[in-house]
Design brief:
2 copies of one chain form a homodimer. The first copy, chain A, is mostly helical. Chain A has one domain (6-130): Winged helix-like DNA-binding domain superfamily/Winged helix DNA-binding domain (Arc Repressor Mutant, subunit A). Helix content of chain A is 53%, strand content 9%. The first copy, chain A, has helices at residues 6-19, 28-35, 39-51, 76-84, 102-123, 127-130; strands at 55-58, 64-67, 93-94, 97-98. In chain A, strand 3 and strand 4 (97-98) form a beta hairpin. In chain A, helix 1 (6-19) packs across helix 3. Chain A is elongated, with a radius of gyration of 18 Å. The relative contact order of chain A is 0.16. Chain A binds a DNA duplex through residues 5-7, 27-29, 38, 40-41, 43-44, 46-47, 50-51, 57-65.
Chain lengths: 131, 131
Amino acid sequence: MKLITRDTDYAIRALCFVAKQKRRIYSVGELAGKLKIPKPFLRKILQILNKKGLIVSYKGKGGGFMLDLAPNNISVIDLIEIFQGPAKLSEHTFKKKPCPHSKSCKLKEKIDDLERYLMSELRSLTVFSLL
Amino acid sequence: MKLITRDTDYAIRALCFVAKQKRRIYSVGELAGKLKIPKPFLRKILQILNKKGLIVSYKGKGGGFMLDLAPNNISVIDLIEIFQGPAKLSEHTFKKKPCPHSKSCKLKEKIDDLERYLMSELRSLTVFSLL
DNA sequence: CAAAATGATACTAATATGGTATCATTTATC
DNA sequence: GATAAATGATACCATATTAGTATCATTTTG
């Protein structure tokens, strides 16, 4: 029952770090060193964040990454969805089809409630609020 | 981000089913048929529930399983812990040691809050309440 | 041109998930 | 007592996910 996987967690740390000096360019090596994250793994993560438009990259010597979005516009829920896919606590399907059991559907109702609560909390939890 | 895995879900369904006729003995084959769960998998699940004292078993011909605990004394959180281990949204360790970053610790605080809420909700969600 | 950076992508190891298979033991019934 | 029908215990297996590594191509600075 893991809410946040390692890559999501690393992404959050990296974004928080980068957000502290907004216009500065950080290379992967620099960030990996400061945050104690394996360099090639962090690199992959930053490339994804770049593709998704959260950070910008500069290629070539002296290049690196810089925050692109405002820290209060990046929520933990965004990062979970980027690295872990749609944020759902349960698909509630049974062999590809919606589950047909009334009892599990009571369960589904409850889990859906919890999910709504969790999602709204995580949506309001931004990089800015973590600085 | 799965709150409940398949075995936990199957266990809940089976317990709900068995709870409907408290003193009746159900064989695995019977339950597997009714609930449309693969028989050997359900068998493994029921054996675990038996070991944990939620149901009792009767060996030999005519044997099977019967509920042992009161349905309102079996909560979803118990089942999650039995099949998925300690119910935690995040271990918040970093290479086996508690994570040293203040920013992720803000994250930890928030996730711990969410966890407390989630746990208390799941603790009050019992087999009885799902009938 | 060389060095230092990212882009793209393929590969790998470990773990978790969702089961199956099998042999041993117990019990009811004939 | 033999047999059938049940669980107990345990080992095995296939697939997916997680957590990375490795490498070649491209871009940019100096």
